[in-house]
Amino acid sequence: MAQVQYDCSTGNHPNITNSTASPVEHEQIQLLLHVCKEAKKSAYCPYSRFPVGAALLTCDGKIFSGCNVENACYPLGICAERTAIQKAVSEGYVNFRAMAIASNTEEDFIVPCGACRQVMREFNRDWDIYMTKPDGTYIVKTLQELLPLSFGPEDLKKF
Ligand SMILES: [Zn+2]
């Protein structure tokens, strides 16, 4: 199993629970909110007609976007959040600070599904997830709050 290097300058590490990570700066949050909205426009969702966009901020300031990509064989569809993560990992980035998610749902803040929460968990517990509405408002939770008592890479080292 490949070992992931956690050398984030913000101090994020799966074994560190009292992270010293500084809050994401206001400008970066605004940029993330903008990018996830733009990414939503690329959503390929002819079956659900539920476009979602995600924007993933790495620890070194790079942003990867993602959208949901559905398939006629329904189970093969993938969420926007995982698209963004897979784009980042495939380009060598595994240290993440924040993700913003956008949909067209006006009544509720869009939240990541359970599968996406687990995939996010693979890469730390302490990063921030911004869940938005189309009007630009959002709520933010740490992944630890969204997926408490989670199973992650360090659990496999306990044998
Ligand atoms: Zn999902």
From TrEMBL:
Transmembrane feature ranges: none
Domain CMP/dCMP-type deaminase: 27-154
Superkingdom in the source lineage: Eukaryota
Disordered, as annotated region: 1-20
Cofactors (names): Zn(2+)
Pfam families per UniProt: dCMP_cyt_deam_1 (PF00383)
One MF annotation (Gene Ontology) recorded for this entry: nucleoside binding
Reactions catalysed: 2'-deoxycytidine + H2O + H(+) = 2'-deoxyuridine + NH4(+); cytidine + H2O + H(+) = uridine + NH4(+)
Keywords: Hydrolase, Metal-binding, Zinc
Residues that bind Zn(2+): C79, C113, C116
This protein's record includes keyword Metal-binding: yes
GO cellular component: cytosol
InterPro entries recorded: APOBEC/CMP_deaminase_Zn-bd, CMP_dCMP_dom, Cyt/Deoxycyt_deaminase, Cyt_deam_tetra, Cytidine_deaminase-like
Binding, substrate: N68, V69, E70, N71, A72, C73, Y74
Keyword ATP-binding carried by entry: no
EC number: 3.5.4.5
Gene Ontology BP, a term: UMP salvage
Catalytic residues, chain numbering: E81
SUPFAM superfamilies assigned: Cytidine deaminase-like
Physiological role: This enzyme scavenges exogenous and endogenous cytidine and 2'-deoxycytidine for UMP synthesis.
Protein family per UniProt: Belongs to the cytidine and deoxycytidylate deaminase family.
UniProt protein name: Cytidine deaminase
Species in which this protein is naturally found: Chelonoidis abingdonii
